[in-house]
Amino acid sequence: MKIMIIGGDGYCGWATALYLSRQRYEVGITDSLVRRYWDMQLKIESLTPIAPVHRRLDCWQAITGRHIDLFIGDITDNAFLIQTLCRFEPEALVHFGEQRSAPFSMIDREHAVLTQVNNLVGTLNILYAMKTCFPECHLVKLGTMGEYGTPDIDIEEGYITIEHKGRKDTLPYPKQPGSFYHLSKVHDSHNIHFACKTWGLRATDLNQGVVYGVRTDETDMDERLINRLDYDGVFGTVLNRFCVQAAVGYPLTVYGKGGQTRGFLNIRDTVRCVELAIKNPAQEGKFRVFNQFTELFNVRDLAVTVQKKGKEIGLDVSIRNTDNPRVEKETHYYKAKNTCLLDLGLEPHYLSDTVLDSLLGVAAKYKHRIDKEQILPQVSWRR
Protein backbone atom coordinates (compact mmCIF):
# COMPACT_ATOMS: atom_id res chain seq x y z
CA MET A 1 0.00 0.00 0.00
CA LYS A 2 1.17 3.51 -0.80
CA ILE A 3 1.02 5.82 2.22
CA MET A 4 1.64 9.56 2.17
CA ILE A 5 2.73 11.03 5.53
CA ILE A 6 1.93 14.74 5.58
CA GLY A 7 4.20 16.39 8.17
CA GLY A 8 6.61 13.47 8.02
CA ASP A 9 9.61 15.46 9.28
CA GLY A 10 7.89 16.11 12.63
CA TYR A 11 7.87 14.15 15.87
CA CYS A 12 4.94 11.80 15.25
CA GLY A 13 5.32 11.89 11.46
CA TRP A 14 8.98 10.88 11.42
CA ALA A 15 8.50 7.89 13.73
CA THR A 16 5.44 6.81 11.72
CA ALA A 17 7.18 7.12 8.35
CA LEU A 18 10.08 4.92 9.43
CA TYR A 19 7.82 2.37 11.09
CA LEU A 20 5.55 2.00 8.06
CA SER A 21 8.52 1.87 5.70
CA ARG A 22 10.02 -0.96 7.75
CA GLN A 23 6.65 -2.76 7.59
CA ARG A 24 7.07 -2.76 3.79
CA TYR A 25 4.59 0.00 2.96
CA GLU A 26 5.60 2.34 0.15
CA VAL A 27 5.97 5.65 2.00
CA GLY A 28 6.15 9.25 0.90
CA ILE A 29 6.74 12.31 3.10
CA THR A 30 5.33 15.77 2.44
CA ASP A 31 6.62 18.57 4.67
CA SER A 32 7.18 22.31 4.43
CA LEU A 33 9.93 22.13 7.12
CA VAL A 34 8.21 25.10 8.77
CA ARG A 35 8.60 23.59 12.22
CA ARG A 36 12.38 23.95 11.91
CA TYR A 37 11.81 27.58 10.91
CA TRP A 38 9.57 28.22 13.95
CA ASP A 39 12.29 26.82 16.21
CA MET A 40 14.72 29.37 14.79
CA GLN A 41 12.19 32.17 15.18
CA LEU A 42 11.56 31.29 18.84
CA LYS A 43 15.27 30.59 19.51
CA ILE A 44 14.55 27.07 20.73
CA GLU A 45 15.62 23.62 19.56
CA SER A 46 15.06 19.96 20.26
CA LEU A 47 17.14 18.54 23.08
CA THR A 48 18.21 15.80 20.68
CA PRO A 49 20.19 16.95 17.61
CA ILE A 50 17.99 16.56 14.52
CA ALA A 51 19.75 15.93 11.22
CA PRO A 52 18.58 17.67 8.03
CA VAL A 53 15.72 15.74 6.46
CA HIS A 54 17.69 14.65 3.37
CA ARG A 55 20.45 13.26 5.57
CA ARG A 56 17.86 11.44 7.67
CA LEU A 57 16.33 9.80 4.62
CA ASP A 58 19.70 8.93 3.03
CA CYS A 59 20.69 7.27 6.30
CA TRP A 60 17.45 5.27 6.39
CA GLN A 61 17.92 4.02 2.85
CA ALA A 62 21.56 3.11 3.47
CA ILE A 63 20.66 1.05 6.55
CA THR A 64 17.45 -0.63 5.38
CA GLY A 65 17.50 -0.40 1.60
CA ARG A 66 14.04 1.18 1.83
CA HIS A 67 13.45 4.41 -0.10
CA ILE A 68 11.08 7.09 1.19
CA ASP A 69 9.96 9.73 -1.31
CA LEU A 70 10.26 13.35 -0.14
CA PHE A 71 8.13 16.26 -1.33
CA ILE A 72 8.99 19.65 0.20
CA GLY A 73 6.21 22.19 0.09
CA ASP A 74 3.24 23.66 1.92
CA ILE A 75 -0.14 21.92 1.75
CA THR A 76 -1.89 25.29 2.09
CA ASP A 77 -0.61 25.74 -1.49
CA ASN A 78 -3.30 23.75 -3.28
CA ALA A 79 -1.42 23.51 -6.59
CA PHE A 80 1.59 21.97 -4.81
CA LEU A 81 -0.63 19.52 -2.92
CA ILE A 82 -2.50 18.34 -6.02
CA GLN A 83 0.73 17.94 -7.99
CA THR A 84 2.36 15.99 -5.17
CA LEU A 85 -0.56 13.62 -4.62
CA CYS A 86 -0.96 12.98 -8.34
CA ARG A 87 2.72 12.06 -8.60
CA PHE A 88 2.62 9.72 -5.59
CA GLU A 89 -0.95 8.36 -5.93
CA PRO A 90 -1.53 7.41 -2.27
CA GLU A 91 -4.02 4.82 -1.09
CA ALA A 92 -4.01 6.35 2.41
CA LEU A 93 -3.13 9.84 3.66
CA VAL A 94 -1.76 10.25 7.20
CA HIS A 95 -2.17 13.89 8.16
CA PHE A 96 0.27 15.19 10.79
CA GLY A 97 0.91 18.45 8.90
CA GLU A 98 -0.43 20.98 11.39
CA GLN A 99 0.80 23.50 13.94
CA ARG A 100 0.39 21.40 17.09
CA SER A 101 1.20 23.65 20.07
CA ALA A 102 -1.43 25.26 22.28
CA PRO A 103 1.04 27.83 23.72
CA PHE A 104 2.22 28.75 20.20
CA SER A 105 -1.38 29.50 19.23
CA MET A 106 -1.82 31.73 22.28
CA ILE A 107 1.29 33.93 21.85
CA ASP A 108 -0.64 36.74 20.13
CA ARG A 109 -3.15 37.45 17.36
CA GLU A 110 -0.66 36.65 14.60
CA HIS A 111 0.11 33.19 15.99
CA ALA A 112 -3.59 32.43 16.56
CA VAL A 113 -4.36 33.36 12.95
CA LEU A 114 -1.33 31.46 11.64
CA THR A 115 -2.41 28.34 13.53
CA GLN A 116 -5.98 28.37 12.30
CA VAL A 117 -5.17 29.30 8.70
CA ASN A 118 -2.40 26.70 8.48
CA ASN A 119 -4.45 23.91 10.03
CA LEU A 120 -7.87 24.56 8.49
CA VAL A 121 -6.75 25.50 4.97
CA GLY A 122 -4.33 22.58 4.78
CA THR A 123 -7.02 20.11 5.83
CA LEU A 124 -9.62 21.62 3.49
CA ASN A 125 -7.15 21.36 0.60
CA ILE A 126 -6.64 17.67 1.42
CA LEU A 127 -10.40 17.04 1.48
CA TYR A 128 -10.90 18.72 -1.90
CA ALA A 129 -7.91 16.83 -3.35
CA MET A 130 -9.46 13.57 -2.19
CA LYS A 131 -12.87 14.51 -3.59
CA THR A 132 -11.42 15.51 -6.96
CA CYS A 133 -8.62 13.01 -7.51
CA PHE A 134 -8.60 10.25 -4.89
CA PRO A 135 -12.15 9.55 -3.65
CA GLU A 136 -11.22 6.00 -2.54
CA CYS A 137 -8.26 7.22 -0.45
CA HIS A 138 -8.55 6.83 3.33
CA LEU A 139 -7.66 9.87 5.44
CA VAL A 140 -6.07 9.15 8.84
CA LYS A 141 -6.07 12.51 10.62
CA LEU A 142 -4.34 13.37 13.89
CA GLY A 143 -6.82 14.99 16.22
CA THR A 144 -6.44 15.58 19.96
CA MET A 145 -8.14 14.60 23.19
CA GLY A 146 -7.99 18.32 23.95
CA GLU A 147 -10.98 18.83 21.64
CA TYR A 148 -13.23 17.45 24.38
CA GLY A 149 -11.97 19.61 27.23
CA THR A 150 -12.78 18.36 30.73
CA PRO A 151 -16.55 17.71 30.86
CA ASP A 152 -18.21 16.48 34.04
CA ILE A 153 -19.44 13.36 32.21
CA ASP A 154 -17.63 10.42 30.60
CA ILE A 155 -15.93 11.15 27.26
CA GLU A 156 -17.04 8.82 24.47
CA GLU A 157 -15.18 8.14 21.22
CA GLY A 158 -16.35 10.96 19.01
CA TYR A 159 -20.10 10.51 19.36
CA ILE A 160 -22.68 10.49 22.14
CA THR A 161 -26.26 9.17 22.19
CA ILE A 162 -28.63 11.59 23.89
CA GLU A 163 -32.34 11.65 24.64
CA HIS A 164 -34.11 15.00 24.60
CA LYS A 165 -37.83 15.62 25.01
CA GLY A 166 -38.66 12.03 24.24
CA ARG A 167 -36.46 11.70 21.14
CA LYS A 168 -33.07 10.02 20.84
CA ASP A 169 -30.16 10.64 18.47
CA THR A 170 -26.42 9.94 18.18
CA LEU A 171 -24.52 13.18 17.70
CA PRO A 172 -20.90 14.38 17.65
CA TYR A 173 -19.64 14.64 21.22
CA PRO A 174 -19.74 18.26 22.52
CA LYS A 175 -16.37 20.02 22.31
CA GLN A 176 -14.84 22.39 24.87
CA PRO A 177 -11.36 23.21 23.48
CA GLY A 178 -8.86 25.08 25.61
CA SER A 179 -6.81 27.09 23.10
CA PHE A 180 -6.90 28.44 19.56
CA TYR A 181 -4.88 25.36 18.56
CA HIS A 182 -7.48 23.01 20.05
CA LEU A 183 -10.21 25.06 18.39
CA SER A 184 -8.53 24.52 15.02
CA LYS A 185 -8.71 20.77 15.62
CA VAL A 186 -12.43 21.02 16.41
CA HIS A 187 -13.01 22.96 13.18
CA ASP A 188 -11.02 20.27 11.31
CA SER A 189 -13.24 17.57 12.78
CA HIS A 190 -16.38 19.37 11.68
CA ASN A 191 -15.01 19.93 8.17
CA ILE A 192 -13.95 16.28 7.76
CA HIS A 193 -17.27 15.03 9.12
CA PHE A 194 -19.12 17.22 6.64
CA ALA A 195 -16.94 16.10 3.70
CA CYS A 196 -17.44 12.43 4.50
CA LYS A 197 -21.20 12.85 4.81
CA THR A 198 -21.54 15.02 1.70
CA TRP A 199 -18.97 13.55 -0.69
CA GLY A 200 -18.75 9.95 0.52
CA LEU A 201 -15.13 10.23 1.66
CA ARG A 202 -13.70 7.98 4.37
CA ALA A 203 -11.71 9.25 7.35
CA THR A 204 -10.44 8.22 10.77
CA ASP A 205 -9.81 10.92 13.37
CA LEU A 206 -7.24 9.83 15.95
CA ASN A 207 -7.89 11.95 19.04
CA GLN A 208 -4.46 11.57 20.55
CA GLY A 209 -3.40 12.15 24.12
CA VAL A 210 0.01 13.48 25.18
CA VAL A 211 2.74 11.46 23.47
CA TYR A 212 6.00 10.67 25.21
CA GLY A 213 9.18 8.83 24.30
CA VAL A 214 12.02 9.34 21.87
CA ARG A 215 13.02 5.82 20.99
CA THR A 216 11.43 3.41 18.55
CA ASP A 217 13.05 0.34 17.00
CA GLU A 218 13.62 2.33 13.83
CA THR A 219 15.07 5.53 15.33
CA ASP A 220 17.41 3.40 17.46
CA MET A 221 19.17 2.14 14.33
CA ASP A 222 21.41 5.19 13.96
CA GLU A 223 22.04 8.51 15.72
CA ARG A 224 21.10 10.34 12.51
CA LEU A 225 17.57 8.90 12.77
CA ILE A 226 16.93 10.18 16.28
CA ASN A 227 13.57 11.82 16.96
CA ARG A 228 12.75 15.16 18.56
CA LEU A 229 12.55 15.80 22.29
CA ASP A 230 10.89 19.17 22.93
CA TYR A 231 11.06 20.51 26.49
CA ASP A 232 10.65 24.28 26.05
CA GLY A 233 7.69 26.35 27.21
CA VAL A 234 6.10 26.51 23.76
CA PHE A 235 6.42 23.08 22.17
CA GLY A 236 7.58 21.01 25.13
CA THR A 237 5.26 18.39 26.67
CA VAL A 238 4.93 17.88 30.41
CA LEU A 239 6.78 14.56 30.78
CA ASN A 240 9.64 15.76 28.57
CA ARG A 241 9.91 18.91 30.68
CA PHE A 242 9.95 16.96 33.94
CA CYS A 243 12.68 14.59 32.72
CA VAL A 244 14.86 17.46 31.48
CA GLN A 245 14.36 19.35 34.74
CA ALA A 246 15.29 16.24 36.73
CA ALA A 247 18.46 15.76 34.68
CA VAL A 248 19.77 19.26 35.50
CA GLY A 249 18.54 19.49 39.10
CA TYR A 250 15.78 22.00 38.30
CA PRO A 251 12.56 21.66 40.35
CA LEU A 252 9.75 19.96 38.46
CA THR A 253 7.31 22.77 37.68
CA VAL A 254 3.71 21.71 38.31
CA TYR A 255 1.24 24.23 36.90
CA GLY A 256 -1.30 25.29 39.53
CA LYS A 257 -2.70 22.55 41.75
CA GLY A 258 -1.55 19.79 39.39
CA GLY A 259 -4.87 17.97 39.22
CA GLN A 260 -5.12 18.42 35.44
CA THR A 261 -5.74 14.89 34.11
CA ARG A 262 -4.94 13.87 30.55
CA GLY A 263 -4.50 10.77 28.41
CA PHE A 264 -0.95 9.65 27.60
CA LEU A 265 0.65 7.17 25.22
CA ASN A 266 4.07 6.01 24.12
CA ILE A 267 5.36 7.02 20.68
CA ARG A 268 5.66 3.28 19.93
CA ASP A 269 1.89 3.06 20.30
CA THR A 270 1.30 6.13 18.13
CA VAL A 271 2.88 4.45 15.10
CA ARG A 272 1.02 1.21 15.73
CA CYS A 273 -2.32 3.04 16.08
CA VAL A 274 -1.78 4.67 12.68
CA GLU A 275 -1.08 1.30 11.10
CA LEU A 276 -4.18 -0.25 12.69
CA ALA A 277 -6.30 2.58 11.25
CA ILE A 278 -4.73 2.09 7.81
CA LYS A 279 -5.22 -1.69 7.84
CA ASN A 280 -8.84 -1.31 8.95
CA PRO A 281 -10.09 1.66 6.91
CA ALA A 282 -13.32 3.53 7.51
CA GLN A 283 -16.26 2.73 5.25
CA GLU A 284 -17.31 5.04 2.43
CA GLY A 285 -19.03 8.14 3.80
CA LYS A 286 -17.90 7.35 7.35
CA PHE A 287 -16.11 9.72 9.72
CA ARG A 288 -15.07 7.64 12.68
CA VAL A 289 -13.22 8.76 15.81
CA PHE A 290 -10.77 6.75 17.91
CA ASN A 291 -9.52 8.08 21.24
CA GLN A 292 -5.80 7.35 21.08
CA PHE A 293 -4.30 7.03 24.56
CA THR A 294 -3.39 4.16 26.87
CA GLU A 295 -3.21 5.67 30.38
CA LEU A 296 -4.53 8.62 32.39
CA PHE A 297 -2.31 10.70 34.67
CA ASN A 298 -2.68 13.99 36.44
CA VAL A 299 0.24 16.38 36.39
CA ARG A 300 1.03 16.11 40.09
CA ASP A 301 1.14 12.29 40.03
CA LEU A 302 3.35 12.38 36.94
CA ALA A 303 5.80 14.68 38.74
CA VAL A 304 5.88 12.36 41.76
CA THR A 305 6.57 9.39 39.47
CA VAL A 306 9.50 11.18 37.82
CA GLN A 307 10.78 12.32 41.23
CA LYS A 308 10.75 8.75 42.55
CA LYS A 309 12.53 7.32 39.50
CA GLY A 310 15.06 10.17 39.51
CA LYS A 311 15.97 9.55 43.16
CA GLU A 312 16.43 5.84 42.41
CA ILE A 313 19.16 6.68 39.92
CA GLY A 314 20.82 9.31 42.11
CA LEU A 315 19.20 12.53 40.94
CA ASP A 316 18.18 15.24 43.39
CA VAL A 317 14.61 15.89 42.24
CA SER A 318 12.23 18.33 43.91
CA ILE A 319 8.74 19.48 42.93
CA ARG A 320 7.52 23.09 42.85
CA ASN A 321 4.02 24.34 42.16
CA THR A 322 4.00 27.42 39.96
CA ASP A 323 1.37 29.81 38.63
CA ASN A 324 -0.59 28.21 35.81
CA PRO A 325 -0.11 30.16 32.55
CA ARG A 326 -3.20 28.46 31.07
CA VAL A 327 -6.90 28.96 31.72
CA GLU A 328 -8.07 25.47 32.68
CA LYS A 329 -9.62 23.48 35.51
CA GLU A 330 -6.88 22.34 37.90
CA THR A 331 -9.05 19.70 39.60
CA HIS A 332 -11.79 17.96 37.66
CA TYR A 333 -13.56 14.74 36.74
CA TYR A 334 -11.99 12.91 33.81
CA LYS A 335 -13.01 9.54 32.44
CA ALA A 336 -12.51 8.81 28.75
CA LYS A 337 -13.25 5.74 26.65
CA ASN A 338 -10.44 4.27 24.52
CA THR A 339 -11.59 0.82 23.40
CA CYS A 340 -11.69 1.09 19.59
CA LEU A 341 -7.94 0.74 19.00
CA LEU A 342 -7.63 -1.93 21.69
CA ASP A 343 -10.37 -3.89 19.93
CA LEU A 344 -8.37 -3.64 16.68
CA GLY A 345 -5.37 -5.23 18.39
CA LEU A 346 -3.32 -2.46 20.02
CA GLU A 347 -0.98 -3.91 22.65
CA PRO A 348 -0.04 -0.87 24.77
CA HIS A 349 3.38 0.13 26.05
CA TYR A 350 2.69 1.58 29.49
CA LEU A 351 4.72 4.21 31.32
CA SER A 352 7.18 1.95 33.14
CA ASP A 353 10.51 2.24 34.91
CA THR A 354 12.17 1.21 31.63
CA VAL A 355 10.54 4.08 29.72
CA LEU A 356 11.44 6.61 32.42
CA ASP A 357 15.00 5.29 32.51
CA SER A 358 15.17 5.83 28.75
CA LEU A 359 13.77 9.38 28.89
CA LEU A 360 15.96 10.37 31.81
CA GLY A 361 18.92 8.77 30.06
CA VAL A 362 18.35 10.80 26.91
CA ALA A 363 17.98 13.97 29.01
CA ALA A 364 21.24 13.20 30.82
CA LYS A 365 23.10 12.36 27.59
CA TYR A 366 22.20 15.68 25.97
CA LYS A 367 21.96 17.90 29.04
CA HIS A 368 24.78 20.05 27.67
CA ARG A 369 22.20 21.20 25.08
CA ILE A 370 19.59 22.25 27.67
CA ASP A 371 18.75 25.94 27.75
CA LYS A 372 17.35 26.59 31.24
CA GLU A 373 15.89 29.89 30.06
CA GLN A 374 13.46 27.92 27.87
CA ILE A 375 12.14 25.57 30.56
CA LEU A 376 9.62 27.87 32.22
CA PRO A 377 6.33 28.78 30.49
CA GLN A 378 6.75 31.44 27.85
CA VAL A 379 3.10 32.21 27.05
CA SER A 380 0.16 33.29 29.23
CA TRP A 381 -3.44 32.69 28.15
CA ARG A 382 -4.49 35.88 29.99
CA ARG A 383 -1.95 38.21 28.46
Structure description:
There is one protein chain. Helix 1 crosses helix 9 (267-279), helix 6 packs parallel to helix 7 and helix 8 (238-247) crosses helix 12 (353-365). This protein has helices at 11-22, 34-42, 53-64, 78-88, 102-105, 109-133, 180-199, 238-247, 267-279, 299-312, 339-343, 353-365; strands spanning 2-6, 26-31, 69-72, 92-95, 138-144, 159-164, 167-172, 202-208, 210-212, 252-255, 261-266, 287-292, 295-298, 319-322. The longest helix is centred in the N-terminal third of the chain and has 25 residues, at 109-133. The strands form 4 sheets. Strands 3-2-1-4-5-8-12 form a 7-stranded parallel sheet, sandwiched between helices. A 3-stranded mixed sheet has the order 9-11-13. It contains 12 helices and 14 strands. The chain is globular.
Descriptive terms for the model:
single chain; 383 residues; alpha/beta; 7-stranded parallel β-sheet; 3-stranded mixed β-sheet; 19% strand; globular
What does the average pLDDT come to?
97
CATH fold title: Rossmann fold
Binned, the helix content reads 25-40%
Sketch the topology as an H/E string, one letter per element: EHEHHEHEHHEEEHEEHEEHEEHEHH
In the CATH hierarchy, what is the architecture at level 2?
3-Layer(aba) Sandwich
| Topology, number of strands | 14
Tell me the span between the first and last alpha carbons: 48 Å
> What is the CATH superfamily label?
NAD(P)-binding Rossmann-like Domain
Coarse structural class = alpha/beta
Biggest pleated sheet:
7 strands, parallel
CATH class membership: Alpha Beta
